[in-house]
Amino acid sequence: MKFDITKHIGKFYLCTLLLLTTVGCSDFLDESDPSNLTPDSFYTTAKHAESAIAAVYADARFVGDGAGIFSSNWQLLEAVTGTSTTQTAQNSDLNNLYSLSYDANTLHIRNWWRGVYKLIANTNLVLENVPGIEMDEAQKNKVLGEARFFRAWGYFYAVRLWGDVPLITLPQSATSEDFNPTRSPQSAVYDQIVADLLAAEGAGLSWTDDSGRVSQSAVKSLLAKVYLTMAGSPLNETARYADAASKAKEVIDNAGPIDLFDTYGEVHDETLGNMVEHIFSLQYNDEVAGNPMGNMFPNFQPVTYRGPSGTGSTVPEIEFYNSYEAGDLRAVDREGWFYSSYYTNGSGELFDLGAPYIFKHFNVIANGTFGVPGTAKDNLNMPIIRFAEVLLIYAEASNEATGPNQDAVDALTRIRDRAQLTTPALGAFTQASLREAVWKERWHELSYEQITWFDMVRLRKVLNSETGTFDDFVGHVNLSSDQALQEKHLLFPLPEQEMINNPNLTPQNPGYN
User: Fold this and answer.
1) Distance, CA of 399 to CA of 411 (rounded, Å)
2) What pLDDT is attached to residue 334?
3) Are 452 and 83 a contacting pair, CB within 8 Å?
4) d(CA 303, CA 297)
5) pLDDT above 70 (res 17)
6) Kind and range of the H or E element at 280?
7) 122 alpha carbon, distance to own chain's centre
8) In which band, very low, low, confident or very high, does the pLDDT at 172 lie, cut at 50, 70 and 90?
9) Would you say the pTM of this structure is higher than 0.70?
10) Domains within the chain, CATH numbers bracketed
11) d(CA 116, CA 137)
């Protein structure tokens, strides 16, 4: 089923161009003159509703789009954490992210702004137009629920990246009164995010969905994540810890087919996409768009069917790799999240890579394994929410809401058991020690999934890989660049070109003028 939806997502995405161009798409439209479609004439059938929401799914893949030579958009959220470094220096924008010297002209930042707001614009079109279509009500509600999920997901990125941002909930045109919108307070943006997710909860979505569509469990998991973020900085709505714990517990207690995989290799097995641990992922299929994590390959080493290749533009910072506990299966070569040896050209003799590289997104089927050549088709999805994160959300939020408790320790223990690590009993924890134990587990379990940076911002804390303790955000030195984080780094700058296009976006975020 995964292949079907990803193929259709790509094809539906082309159909959305009908809203902007004069090109027809006869596979999905029945009008006698498809070259004259408008939003009013497009949103008339159930197929149009499905085409429109499929375009939203396609738009969400902007996260994996390119950002210049040897770089991808997702690297915005990895380079700044200090948990990775680079073996190349050919992309100046990426170099500036690693060195914390990025500014309002950095390509990755501009791409994220445009990607997020394009996604939001298409969800607004769905939410405005699909209610008027005569179609099966259950199907309609599901489409609207998916659109609300994605609008919330887009705004959740925007508010964490830039703080106060334009809050647009209706389709825009050049004649719209708020065509050049001002920035709304973060609290208002979060209110909209929560409202959208609560509405999506009641949309009749299935509990899980092996095809990759948004599910009820994905909505609840994202809502738990939003509540956890609201409880931290800058909102500091500490009552939200209880809300986060409650929502995460709904997923844990009613998991059904949701669980942790038995092995870490299953996390990046393309045949298990959208199953078990994968609550929500961005869908990739090589016929439409292949997995976008190739910049994690080592620089010019023969670990795949391509032979000597790869950019090495995101590789582990060695001190972070060394911060994993002794015996942690996640740090074992080709067992967990890293590999320091692989098979020549993907399927030949084992050779030493000379350093650890990121194995978490390595597709063995596409790239090859011993004696089995790769298929050269990387259909591995990009994980956005795994069950492991839900367990850690619960452990952290429950501890903050009520102090150490057995359920919180049990959730933490499930993560550590898979890593073959021992977890202290409940009585050994204080609230402070359990708090830092969960934080550290988040750094190690969720690394290289574009999550760590947002933990740093909401906690105002950063794992010190050398001491194993947590530094204050401001003043922490990223070992990958030997540069210290500053107050201004809590937000990214608004893209300069966007501020030129819309003067109402001023003022620029502090420290970037």
Assistant:
1) 11
2) 97
3) yes
4) 8
5) no
6) strand 278-282
7) 19
8) confident
9) yes
10) 43-195+450-512 (1.25.40.390), 206-283+383-447 (1.25.40.900), 292-380 (no CATH)
11) 29
